[in-house]
Amino acid sequence: MVSTGPPVARQISLYAVIQSILLHGPTSRADLAKRAGLSRQTISDVVLELETAGWLKPLGRTAGKPGRSAVVYEINAAAGLAAAVDLGGTKLSVAIGDLLGNALAEATVPTDTRGGTQVVEQVAGQIESLAAELNVSAKQLKIVVLGTPGVFHPGTAHIMVAPNIPGIGEVNVLGVLSDRLGVPVIIENDVNLAARGEQWRGHGTGVRNFVFIAIGTGVGMGIIADGHLLRGARGAAGEIGYLPIGGDPYDPRGFTLGTFETAVGGVGIANRYVGFGGHGGATVRDIFSALESGDAAASATIEETARLIAPAIAAVGATLDPEMVILGGSIGARPELIDAVRRILPRCTPSPPRVVASVLGSRAGLVGALGVAVDRMHDALFGVGLPATPLLAPSARRQQADLRIVQDSVG
Amino acid sequence: MVSTGPPVARQISLYAVIQSILLHGPTSRADLAKRAGLSRQTISDVVLELETAGWLKPLGRTAGKPGRSAVVYEINAAAGLAAAVDLGGTKLSVAIGDLLGNALAEATVPTDTRGGTQVVEQVAGQIESLAAELNVSAKQLKIVVLGTPGVFHPGTAHIMVAPNIPGIGEVNVLGVLSDRLGVPVIIENDVNLAARGEQWRGHGTGVRNFVFIAIGTGVGMGIIADGHLLRGARGAAGEIGYLPIGGDPYDPRGFTLGTFETAVGGVGIANRYVGFGGHGGATVRDIFSALESGDAAASATIEETARLIAPAIAAVGATLDPEMVILGGSIGARPELIDAVRRILPRCTPSPPRVVASVLGSRAGLVGALGVAVDRMHDALFGVGLPATPLLAPSARRQQADLRIVQDSVG
Amino acid sequence: MVSTGPPVARQISLYAVIQSILLHGPTSRADLAKRAGLSRQTISDVVLELETAGWLKPLGRTAGKPGRSAVVYEINAAAGLAAAVDLGGTKLSVAIGDLLGNALAEATVPTDTRGGTQVVEQVAGQIESLAAELNVSAKQLKIVVLGTPGVFHPGTAHIMVAPNIPGIGEVNVLGVLSDRLGVPVIIENDVNLAARGEQWRGHGTGVRNFVFIAIGTGVGMGIIADGHLLRGARGAAGEIGYLPIGGDPYDPRGFTLGTFETAVGGVGIANRYVGFGGHGGATVRDIFSALESGDAAASATIEETARLIAPAIAAVGATLDPEMVILGGSIGARPELIDAVRRILPRCTPSPPRVVASVLGSRAGLVGALGVAVDRMHDALFGVGLPATPLLAPSARRQQADLRIVQDSVG
Amino acid sequence: MVSTGPPVARQISLYAVIQSILLHGPTSRADLAKRAGLSRQTISDVVLELETAGWLKPLGRTAGKPGRSAVVYEINAAAGLAAAVDLGGTKLSVAIGDLLGNALAEATVPTDTRGGTQVVEQVAGQIESLAAELNVSAKQLKIVVLGTPGVFHPGTAHIMVAPNIPGIGEVNVLGVLSDRLGVPVIIENDVNLAARGEQWRGHGTGVRNFVFIAIGTGVGMGIIADGHLLRGARGAAGEIGYLPIGGDPYDPRGFTLGTFETAVGGVGIANRYVGFGGHGGATVRDIFSALESGDAAASATIEETARLIAPAIAAVGATLDPEMVILGGSIGARPELIDAVRRILPRCTPSPPRVVASVLGSRAGLVGALGVAVDRMHDALFGVGLPATPLLAPSARRQQADLRIVQDSVG
Fold first, then answer.
1. What is the rounded average pLDDT of the residues A289-298?
2. Nearest C-alpha of chain C: how many angstroms from A304?
3. What is the per-residue burial (b if ≥16 Cβ within 10 Å, else e) of B399-411?
4. Is pLDDT above 50 for A407?
5. Given CB atoms, is C241 within the 8 Å cutoff of chain D?
6. Which of residues 290-329 of A touch D (CB under 8 A)?
7. C-alpha distance from D276 to closest chain B C-alpha (Å)
8. Nearest beta carbon to residue C253 from set B252, B255, B271
């Protein structure tokens, strides 16, 4: 059935059809031919091939003049499932989504405090359990995308600098998890994934240049530049905790956590509150509550924190020229803080970028993981440039090689 | 003569052949077939087509066993010529290069001090005059790539914020120059071009993530991220003159030129020298000379300047994670300054990036402009993805439409 | 009539009587004896001597039991007159006061814009004209105390660093003025005099350690430490315009006017307003008016200015431990600014000193000059430690030698 | 024997004689009369009185023409003894000195680590034991002057903020020690005493305005202004550890120890060394040793420390205008550090004060305590202004009331 044309050309045709339906939704063959600039015969061949393989399914017929109605095809979303994981120091969230990015199941549990391999096992268990709810085997997943704090070093396959999960740096999370599940795994910095989440289904939709700045226990930034996630030479792009802001640039006390993170991370904010006369032991959440009730120390704390964030945004603006800065994280997304930042920003830069709150909130990382998973499924299943990728029926278990995805091409 | 295969497939084959020869140099058809994974017949057809059109030419025959020698083909470099322009406040440099990026002619003259349209006219005149030296008409050039200080705003086609060339902001440089010459024109920030120059033929060769920081009269940065030039939302990425370093971040005196540029640009350095007891009227060049003869004010000036540059590099490192920082510009490339920066950098960041001097020196921008011109010629002439691009004989004047290149896809 | 006791002892007795009346007001001889612990005979002798010489005069008799009423003596305030001068860049204020510090006449005129000797002549003329109003000759004044911006250098008798009065640095103001009037002259920094004014008749009454910080066109501080005006080695104590606050401490742009003065002096504030979007040409007065009408740029300007003043007060606090900081000057005394400083100060020091507005306002310097003049008259006329000072009748013109007062013992 | 003249006049004569001999050394009566401007008869009476009381003693006769030689009198130094104490966190030094400030005995022991009352008892024991060596009873001492880190609050008689001696803040050191020894006690900040030491017998001799900056475990400054020790409203003048230098002025982490002390105190320096790659556990002494052997981290550490000290000196200069800055303390007196400060200071102030190393080194505080003790003995024994002070024989134990010395008039 396969066309006699060169495989590459056929691959491109397949890709064009899928992309067209992904972009425009259910479509008839005639419309596909019009959009792709291909002959109706070629389109018919391709659609047949995709339907046979299970990627497309007929949705129904267009309403039209009698005798002119046509079958409308949609993506068979269930033909590819993937797991998205957001692994934090306190919480572990897992979702399973389909080819269209619909989250079919989702669960959040406290992270296993024992850390290390126990946490990896917990991740695997959660995935399996969610898969079971959906009556599939975890092995059928096309990919697992796991977001976590810290820098993931592709060379060693270890997660670096993730102080909130004990022992995680000693485990080959990628290897253990993919072996355990029999599914390819991608690990990505959680803030990078949150940026992808906002790009996919948040404020960043259609914005080619923006940054997502997360402020919570730690501080980080995900960069979307010219539409792509920017990672830097060692995966450490966006590690703005190390900006020389909030302390003397030459003070090596800032070398460990970073001068900026030390100043505006959760611990820094809590210390500031105590320094300004607030009661000890207050969490950042308590400080925001105190702010509402007019507590002067809380007000000073938030204002001074905003005064450190604003020059950091100015520095990011001078470097990256983003169209938009999305503030997220448990602290960064607070409207009181964002209001203060917006008010102060024009005092430290002549061209303040637009600052908005993350629309996805604490789910940004999980959504981003799902988005990456969908991308990877699309690329692997329908992508050009992978010459030896035969189109198999989705139900047939894909060989892992088909999805061999290198870390540095995510996004 | 054109093959009956699908145009896209043929286009890809043409591209593969050209890329292979560009990458590996003169090659025989047999080797081309081996490298491209295409049949010898397809290769023969393609080579014939390219040779007929003038893009390839036989270089000679391989040495080999008797009867086994083969014709070796090379790119017909002269089949495409382009002009590269580096338009500065004091100097105007123009080069004409060929398809392989060989600079065939080059000239530098003082920039017309009257500014505005006179400068545009001067650029055109210089191009025409260089073309005449090569016995071609300027109209035959495939493209002109012009680098200049300031931010080029594609929407208005005006050059913003280029304080060193009077009146240039009021001229539609792109329109006037392309109309005047009858050749498509690309305008790009000169530091961005210098970064491209270093990527093409300098320290950045093969480095996927690096920045080029130019320090001269002004301050700027070109960013190569994941191999591509990063421009930001408004073309202002890399405008690190606005980093909140070298002064109070909340001091709006830094709003005009930028806090950092005010501190480390040429005027700032000269003022610093006077403030430290150096004689008034000294140029930065004088200060470096004084440094050699042990002048304490010069020594203090360079050291303090380096102490401001180092945290800026730290800030860039925390944001972009470059593998390398190339320092260029008439001040930035001075080894005394670079030594000082290298010595000081580890005091303000735990992970100092590698710092090197620009290898191209004051020609980095011109080389970059030539590199962009070559890229654009290759893309336009051999690129995929431009479905309506027929391969014409190089001697036939290309329609401008074929090369209609949008600003935001250079590089 | 003069007692046969040692002159020093008599001097001390005279001093004790005068001090007692200055302190407690009109007093009888009996009460004087009681307070001084001296015999009634000694007191009678001393009072007679002082009355004869003209320094005391009987006010009346105490009301008391019949036959027990007593003559009550008061200071003959008119027995000593002095001129106080506040010489500013735009205004010249002169007052003539008596031995009790009553201002008998006062006038303010615009400072002669020609500067230099013309200004000195103007000062002399104003003094003579005021004296004429009081029907005395300027020659009868005991002393002239002149306050002016800048550091007065006793060695050269020139006023250093007073940029607002052209040419004043080239004139020997002290010599010219005292020659012209035939009266001894003291020159003192105007902010120091304002501090003395507040100590004498303002918020500083009875406060042993306080500072007066003037913020207007320029910035300065007068220090009262352990009750005395502190001048430093070169008369430059309190020149807080040079504090390394409001800019990079290593930026020699701050060497001319001082980093802090550059940032918070009148010009700095006006520039800040423009930088924050306020309209150009606004005076500081305009900015405060705009603040009232809710102008955001004005609000940002005042807040940011207060944020620079607060750390300066913290620095002064860490150095001098004043009980109180009095803010004065045309800018410093504005309640909107003081409120902002008070609000912000606890954020930059754990032990913020009390901050109050100058109670004397723009007259603080003139009042201080008068206070110094009264002190000098008292010291010269009644003081111990000047062994050769005979008590002459106040009407007799004092020889200049008697009042030769060295610069570094004022206050 | 007492002259019939008024007691005050006689007191002044006694004072004049003593001062003359203190100032000029052994002197004859004729020379005393000449210098004091008093009659030879008065001088003879006074000298006889002082000799009888034990304060003066004949040294011998002047060499002169036969028949013209005269008895030369000197102070009977042994007529008044006092104890000076320097109580530090690790060492306790005690000296006993005489009326001329000769240290007759001196001892240093480790401070009792139990702190609190044990330390007070240790001080008393050391004084008694030294006195015993000199064959006198501790009760015969005229005064004890004790220097210690921290602010001594006269109102509560407690030592505030002396973190290095546990429990010392809970003890009424003044009361316990004076009760225990039966001798009046003065407590003073140790850095203030070191400043007095330098004024008395160090670099500050004859300098009316200077500061002594101590940098060791902690940071402090003693101020001599117009010849007098300046204490401020709460005894906290010179607490420059709280200068807003070395960190963000608005960072309340600096509220506890002070932003400046946190940055340049011993712990800050050791942390800086580790941050710059030096080995952990190094003491500041080790760092200076490493500096000698060319260790780059040590070099960076000292240079960066000097770069923080220099702006602090600039701030002190702008506030106090000292003629000289004496650097002392175990860190501050290191020549390597002072050289670095001297080199850097002109980069952060246009009028750098002279910077010298403490000449008294670690004994500055003890010397200063002795100097204060001598002053107090002279004031109490020979001073005017204490009307009821009869001159008793030195051997008679003085009533404590005679020496009731209030804290705020030392120096």
1. 96
2. 9
3. eeebbebebeebb
4. no
5. yes
6. 304, 307-308
7. 6
8. B271
Whether residue C13 contacts residue C42, with contact meaning beta carbons closer than 8 Å, is answered with: yes
Q: Within its chain, how far is the Cα of B251 from the centroid? A: 34
Contact state of A277 with C346 under an 8 Å Cβ cutoff: yes
Neighbours of chain C (3+ CB pairs under 8 A): A, B, D
Q: How many CB pairs under 8 A join B and D?
A: 12
State the chains in contact with A (3 or more Cβ–Cβ pairs under 8 Å): B, C, D
More confident residue, B386 or D307: D307
Q: Give, for D192, the enclosing helix (H) or strand (E).
A: helix D190-201
Query: Angle, to 10 degrees, between the axis of helix B190-201 and the axis of helix B364-382?
Result: 80
Interface touch A347/C276, C-beta < 8 Å: yes
Which residues of chain A make contact with D344, given a CB cutoff of 8 A? none
Contact B209, B322 (CB under 8 A): yes
Residues in D touching A272 (Cβ below 8 Å): 251-252
Angle of helix A364-382 versus helix A7-24 axis, rounded to 10: 150
- The DSSP secondary-structure symbol of A12 reads H
Contact B346 D276 (CB under 8 A): yes
Q: How many CB pairs under 8 A join C and D?
A: 168
Residue with tokens 């600003």: B407
The minimal CB distance from C321 to the residues D9, D226, D234 is found for D234
Measured in whole angstroms, how far is the alpha carbon of residue C254 from the centre of its chain?
28
Amino acid in the structure at residue D66: P
Size of interface B-C (CB pairs under 8 A): 40
**ipTM of this predicted complex?**
0.86
Tokens read off for C11: 């001097």
How much of chain B exceeds pLDDT 90, in percent?
63
Is the per-residue pLDDT at D164 higher than 50?
A: yes
Residues 6+ apart with CB under 8 A from D213: D219, D220, D221, D240, D309, D312, D313, D316, D325, D326, D327, D328, D329, D332
**Residue for token digits 């893009």?**
B55
B246 at C interface, C-beta within 8 A: yes
pLDDT above 90: residue B69: no
Q: Give the side-chain half-sphere CA count within 13 A for A80.
A: 27
pLDDT for position D154: 64
Chain B contact present for A247, CB below 8 A: no
Nearest to C349 among D242, D318, D349 (CB): D242
Contact D53/D392 with Cβ under 8 angstroms? yes
- The stretch C174-186 carries a mean pLDDT of 93
Flag if C300 and A276 touch (Cβ within 8 Å). Answer: no
pLDDT in tens, A186-211: 999 999 999 999 999 999 999 999 99
Highest mean pLDDT among A3-12, B5-14, D5-14, D173-182: D173-182
Structure tokens at B364: 């980095």
Q: What is the mean pLDDT of residues D299-316?
A: 98
Model confidence over A265-291: pLDDT tens digits?
Answer: 999 999 999 999 999 999 999 999 999
Closest to B372 in 3D by CA, of B166, B198, B182: B198
What is the percent of chain C with per-residue pLDDT over 90, rounded to a whole number? Answer: 63
Closest CA to D210 of A190, A87, D197, B132: D197
Do strands C143-148 and C185-189 pair parallel, antiparallel, or not at all (unpaired)? parallel
Judge: A347–B311 Cβ closer than 8 Å, yes or no: no
D316 vs A382 pLDDT, higher one: D316
- At B317, list the tokens: 């490192």
Copy the structure tokens of residue C68: 């027990």
Are residues D374 and D101 in contact, defined by beta-carbon separation less than 8 angstroms?
yes
pTM: 0.88
> How close A347 comes to chain C (CA, Å)?
6
D258 contact C CB<8A: yes
Q: Test B276 with C252 for CB contact under 8 angstroms.
A: yes
**C-alpha closest to that of D148 among D161, D135, D138:** D161
Q: Which pair of tokens denotes residue D47? A: 């000298």
